[in-house]
Each structure stands twice: as C-alpha cells, then as structure tokens.
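Suppose a colleague, Dr. K., hands you the sequence of a protein chain of 294 amino acids and asks what its three-dimensional shape might be. Before reaching for any lab equipment, you can write down a predicted structure in token form. Begin with the sequence itself:
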Amino acid sequence: MNAKLYFLFTVFIICLLSCNSKKETITPEIKNISESVYSTGFIKSVNQYEVFGSRNGIVEKIFVTEGMRVKKGDPIFQMENENLKVATENAKLASRVSDIKINSNKLLDAKKAIDLAQRNLSNDSLQYERQKNLWSKNIGSKVQLEQKELSYEKSKTEFDRANTNYEDLKRQLNLASEQSKNNLEIAELMEEDFIIRSEVDGVVYKINKEVGELINGQEPSAIIGTEEFIIELSIDEIDIIKVKKGQQVIIRMDSYESEVFEARIIAVDLMMNKRTRLFQVLFLPISPKSFFQI
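The predicted structure, expressed as tokens, is then:
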C-alpha cells in the first residue's frame, strides 16, 4: 500500500513540474545577408609604374626621397659615367673650336684674297688691253704683248682660285661646325642615358636602390605613381561568380583589423590565371585617402 502511494505521488510531482515549465520560442526576422569572399591582393596607385634604367650602371646620386612629389622629367637617379663626361667635355671643346663664328676671321682672310685677286685681274686686264692697242698701232714689241697677256691670264686664274678657296673653306668650316655640334649632341644624349627621370607627375612610393648599388634592367629601381589608389585582389574560381562589375563592397584587411572600407568593383578579369587558378578583380576605394596618407 505504501509503495502504491509513493508511485502515485511521484507521478503527480512529475506532472506538476511538466505543467509549470515554459516552452522556448523563436521569433524569425527578415534581414540582409552579407556574404564574405576571402582573397589576396594589394593596394597600388592608379598609374603606378616601375622605374627601370635604359642601361646598367652604379648609382652615383639619388635626387628624391620616398613620399616626395615629382614632375614628369624630374631626375630620380644619376649613374656613374666618368668616361662619358670626359668625352662630352672634349665634344664641347671641339664644338667651340669649330664654331663658324669663331672661324669667321678665316673666311674674312679668304675674302680679302678674292678682293686682291680681283684688283690684280682688273689691273692686268687694263694693261693687256693697252698693250693690244699699242701693238695694233705698231708700237711696242710682240714680247711685251705676250707678257701682258700672260699676266692677265695668270691674274684670272688667281682670281678663280681665290673664289674656289673661299667656297671650299666656307663648306669645310660649316661641315666641321655641324659635325662638332652633332658629336656634342650625341655625347650629351649618351650622358642623359645615365640620368633616370620620372615619366609621370606623381609621388615616389618606393626607392629600391642606394648610392653605390647597381641599376639593371632586371628589377625596378623605384616605384612612382599618382595619389589615386586601386585595390587589386585575386579571387578563386569558386567565389568569382559572387562578384560583378559595379558592385559595391565592404573590404576588411589584415593591416587594418578594426576598420572596414567601402569600395566599388571597376573591373573583373574573366580570364583565369592557369597557374594560380585565380581571377583578378579591381576595386576602386570610395575614400582612397583612407588607405594611404601621403
């Protein structure tokens, strides 16, 4: 009897507890779902370019520092070129020596020789004509007439030679002057090859060389670009279908753990890199200054 009462009492307690317990409920809500895509990439300038030298050489001087603004044509590096400097100086000396203005006195002397030959010719021509007139009147001798004729012919030859010498000298001086100027220009152009200049207006973001180091065509000596930035990311073939051109996104980067940045997709390369099996996507930051303060 006691066992039966105990059983009924236990069942009553269980039912009582069951009736008093509250049921858990879930209230659904409608919200936007954000999907994350993980990728690797980097930030770069819009018109960023890598600076290479047109020839190999040792850095003699660096004209800029990182973060410095430059104009197109501003010098970045000066490479050693002692032998070429000597050649340029020699070309300058030769150009000055051969300048047509400096040698104008030689042309003046040649012109004076023409004037003298002209006077001698005029005088000998007059003497010859007089002697012919006398000879026609049976005055004088034939030998005198022949001497006057010979002097006249000789003066005429000297006059022609003086003119020829003047023209030859003029051509030679002009040729020497032009050649020396061309040689100087070539030497200066070759020397200019040892100065690496900026090809754009922008900012020097990176200098990869120091004085005394070798500049070659295998690696960039510096990186220059504008103050506008883009983000270049590589996305795998699974996630590439989730992005499209014109889409606005939020980007979080490891270097800015507590910050997020808004950007817009401006280009999607649909050609997959066969080696990495990744697609290149370009993002334009909505607030570019947030990424890099110049």
